[in-house]
Structures are given as C-alpha cells and as structure tokens.
Amino acid sequence: MNLDPKVQRIIGWRESIAVLPDNHFFEIIRMYLGEIKTPFNKQKLIEELGAFIRKEENRKTLISLLSETDLRIISAVKYITNATQEKLFSFFSGSYSFAELYERLLNLEERLILYRKSSRSDSKTFIAINPHLEEDLEPYTKQSVLLENPEYAKLSYETPSSLSPELIASFISFIHKNKDLCKSDGTFKKRTQTEIERLFPGKTELLFNLTKAFINLSLIREIPDGYEIDRNKFLAFARLDPRLQYAYLCVASQGRFSRNGLARQAKLLLDVATSIPHGGFSRSIVLRLAYLISEDQSDAPGLSSFASNSRFASILNRARENDSAIVEHESDLSSILDRLIECAAMFGIFSHKGTDVKGESIFVSGTIFDEREDFEEKPKCLSVDAAFTVTLMPGLSLENLIPLMDFMELLQFDTAAVFEINRKSVMRGFDAGLNADKIFSLLKKYTPYEIPQNLEISVDDWSRSYSSATIFKGYVLQVSAENATMTENNPAIAPFIAQKLGAGIYLLSVENDEQAANIIARSGLDFIGKIKTPEKNYESIGFPEIIVPKKTDRFDSDEEAKPTSDEERAAHFEAMRAELEKLNLPAEKKEGLAERIQHKIILSPVQLRADSVKYERIEAGGMDFSGKLHIIEGSISNNSMVELQFDDRTIVGIPLSVNKTGSDATVLMEVMPERNEKLISIGQAKFVKRIRGSVLR
Prior knowledge:
Layout: H1 5-18, H2 22-33, H3 42-54, H4 56-64, H5 68-79, H6 85-91, H7 98-110, E1 114-118, E2 125-129, H8 134-137, E3 152-155, H9 165-177, H10 190-199, H11 204-216, E4 220-223, E5 226-229, H12 231-238, H13 242-252, E6 256-257, H14 259-275, E7 281-282, H15 283-296, H16 313-317, E8 326-327, H17 330-335, H18 337-347, E9 350-356, E10 361-365, E11 382-384, E12 389-392, H19 398-405, E13 409-413, E14 417-420, H20 423-431, H21 436-446, H22 453-467, E15 476-478, H23 481-489, E16 497-502, E17 505-508, H24 513-523, H25 566-581, H26 587-598, E18 619-621, H27 625-638, E19 641-645, E20 650-661, E21 664-671, E22 676-681, E23 687-691
Helix pairs in contact: 9-19, 11-13, 13-14, 13-18, 14-15, 20-22, 25-26
C-alpha cells in the first residue's frame, strides 16, 4: 500500500524522535509536555508531542516567533536537496560563522521546527522541516527569502567593457597576423602583450581569457608556428545566439569541458544572469542564486544538479589546477563557479553596479541583455578610404564579420575598429579561398559608398600575382590524355578530385592511403598507384544549442509572507517573563526557564514548569581557569561543541580529550568546519562557551 507522502514524512519524524538517546528524548518531552508519569509508552508520548505541535494556538505562536534569520535557514533546508549541516554552512558562507549557524540549527531543532534524519544507505545525517508545520511555513519560505537585497555602500558609474562581435572579429584578425602569440605555459608572450596593449588598450586581461576560451573550444588550433583560426568551426560558433556565444566563451575560459558539461555551465550562467533583479545581488548572493537554480534544474534533461553530488563548499574553496583537462565530474563543474563571476562581468554577462556595506561587489544582468532580442543587422557599417583604411562600426553579426577578417589587418580597436587592406592581408584572403570578386562583393555589401578605384586596381594586381604560381600539397593523380575523360567521369574517383592541375593531372582529396586504395579498387583502374590527400578541413561538429532565457523576476518577489516585527516578538517574551515572575521558584530554575523563553522554546505559560529544568553552567572567561576547564570537560561527556575565543581568533569544534600540564591544560579538538584535529591551550582562551547540545542529536 502506497502511503501519502506527507504521512510518510510524519512517520519519519516520529522515528527520528523514537531513536533519540533516552536523555535527549526525555529532555524534549519534559520541555513541551512536562514531567513524565510512569509507567509511560514512548510511542504515546511521541503522539502527544505531535498533538502539541498541531494545536492551532501553538502553531500560531511558533510562527509568530520566527525571525528573518529563522526563515532564511528554514527556507534553505526546504530548497536544498538532502540538506546537511555542511551544505548549509557552505550555502550561507560569508553571512554566518559556523558557530552562529550551528546554534541557530540547534535552536530550530529545540523549537521542533527542524529535525535530523539518518540516511538509510549511509551514515549521513540530513536536516528536514517538521512535516506537521509544512503548510504553516509555506507562505514564509519562498526562494526569494534566501536572496537578500544588497545594502549599497558605493555605486559604480563606470561603463563596463564587454565582448562584442566587433571585438571578437578584431581579435581574430590579430591572431591571423600573430599566430605565435602564446608561451608554452599558455600566457601571452611579451611582444604579444605589448602589441595587444597598443591595439586593444585596457583589454589585455579580457583577451587573455578570450584566448583560453578559443583554445578550449577548439576555435583555434595549434600548428607548428603557433595557432590558426579554425574557420569552419568559428562560423558554426558564430551562428549561435550571441548571448550563448559569450556564455560558452566565459565557461571555456576556465577550462575544457565535454559538450554536456559546457552546456550545463552555460545554461546555469545565463539563468543566473537573467534572474538577477534590477537592484542587483552581492557576490555571495549570486552564488546562492546559482545554487538554487541548479537545484531547480536537477531533473531537467541533460542538466545535472551541481548540488546533488557535491558539497556547495567547492564553489567557494576549490580551484582546478589543470585548465587543459576535460572536466566531467560534477564537483569539478561546480568548483569554477566562483572564479566564473569575474570573467562573466568582464564578458558582459554580469555588470558591476557597486559594492555593499561589507565591501562585496554587487552585480546586475550584463550589457548583453540590454540589446533587443530581435537583433537586426545594420549592413552598411564599413567605410573604405583611398588609403585602403577600413573603419568598422557596430552592426554586423560575428558570422558576417569573420569573412571580412580574412583579408583585413587590424590597426586599432576602439568604439570603431580600424583596419587596413594591404598586399599581405589580401594574400591571406586568397589562401582562405577568396578571390578578387568575392573581396569586392563583401566590401560593396557592407559599405554605403563606392569602393576606391585604386583599391580595386591593387587587389586585381595582387590577384594576378597570386595566381601566377601555386604550391599544392598532397597526392597527384596523373593519367594519359586518352584516359582523362574516363577518369573524370569515374563515379568512384570524381567526388575526390579537389583540383584539376592540368590535362590529365588531378589533386585528390582523400583521408589516407587506405581510403585511396579503396577508391582505386572501386574505380576499376587498377593500374593507378597509391595517392595521398592534401590537408582537408571537414565540417566540424557544431556546438550544443540552448534556448537563451528571457529576463525574469522570479527571484525578485514580494509574495512571501513577512515575519512578525521585533516589537511583536518582544511582547511575547515580556508576557512569558511576567508569568515566570509570578512563580515562586528557586533562582537557578527561573534562570533556566528564562533562557528557554529567550530561545523561543516556551510557547505558552503551561511550559513554565520547574521540574523540567536542569541548571547547567555553559560559559566561563577571564581568569576562571577551573571554570573553563569544567565547561570543556562537561562538553566532552555531553558530546557538545565548544567555542574558544582568543585575542586574534575564535575556534569552534568538538573537544575530544583534555591534557593537564602544570598551570595550563590543552584540549584536543576536532575543529569545525574543516574537521581537523588540533591541540589548543585552555588557559590562553579569553572565553570558553559550550554550544548547547542538540536535543535531536
């Protein structure tokens, strides 16, 4: 029989309470139900605890006591798949220290809002929302709760530089002339850097990232004297939506990926960029946004959640060492997101809008999303003068710019790019398969004026010079004059004739000697010897297509219910304290109950019972060495964490053992969140505090 999912979750919650150690189980029962009468039935007590939570007045009070921080943590538990303490700490990195978050989680457990459940398949412990409270919490736990709006300290008024078709095309022209642009370690040569700074002022870092992207996307390929443009692959790339082009370039600037890995990263990047509201998000909130979107995409075809198989901490802490390796594992995919942000801002996917009060950068959607979605080209954007100088204004797509770069040499890149047509650049165009007529056709297509006559004369002259001698590389088939017609019409050979060099002389295009032998065997011309093909560029596999998302405000919503104000919560505390003052109780008992009121455990005066309180000292400082030692030793026996404060640092962890040495003592601690074991002086600590143990441990 299939149970309702909520019923299954309630059963899971009951099981988590039932398997608690006895001291923790009885502590939570006493806190909410009072002294336990014997004989008792454990399952019946758990049912009574559930009934206590289900009472409308208790649920209302519980919800009314939730602060913004409470709701933020509860929302994170809701939206993070299989939330763990470590995942939550990573998710809130920069907002809460480990000790702060740990105490908050314990408090929410004590208040019966969250609980811990163990995985059936391994030893992991996950945090979940009490199923009895799911409907009550629903209006307050939207994803937007997790994405705080920034508090600006400074606005940025700089006009950000970004990628553009003209910049990419101009850099293609630069590579045509400067093939040997990189050292063996992948960095620019000094000569290259000097030339880039001259031609592209202020864009050296951007173009270095662009070069890495070109290499990792195989848009340029290595040759003996450097790199050359893979024209066919670049044209396939240029047919993509420009925003997708920039996303691929941004991702590829950080390493090489499989097609699926590249597509996943690019989609996540675009989804994040289009989801940032007009007011922007700080860097840490952008990372949270990326995490939430990856969680949403966990079931999308071809898109694997970055969170499902790796700790979110890797986004903040891990850096990949080898950019040339193809990255496949999800943890490696997520590890580059933090580094990706700055490159995305450089490429125009994000834009810097300022800094917040913590000094963090604030980002908004980049300039590439400001353009109209239905981009209309402005074809008449070339100006050619009599000195063979070409001025290129914005307006053409990258696909239409690439052929122009075959025969133009960059002079300067600025708002308008300036090129020169010279003998060397035109010869390069001829090598790329252009002829004089094609060059004239391209220029006339994109300029509103007549082409200078002296340019036409010069290009024609260079064309005649180029055609006067040709070097071919490859295997040549030569047949006698009487066999020429039969060879040209032979169906096995004709498709592979790349060039007729003369009467009965043919340059053949085949893959290898084995293919050549098969062609000759099929042709029936068994008197022909082996042939070898010249280098041939076959159509390369294209890039994965992704639908570029539209700008959205899905994370900029005011639909979630707001928590009660500080004043309203304070009124509850005052009322409970007033009730407590009416009771004639020992000071230690009152102090314990007052602490429960402060920690929002007391929902009604019924819970103010002296017999439910056990007084414990949890902090000591200054010269009270014995007090500090007592707290640490008690934490060891209770399996609780401690917080040790020093002049220059605060250490949080689980104390494992104490070693007394004369006037001092050291504690061996498992330091959190790194989980490294360290020996720490107790006497030198200014303050020692036991972090309250989890009643649901």
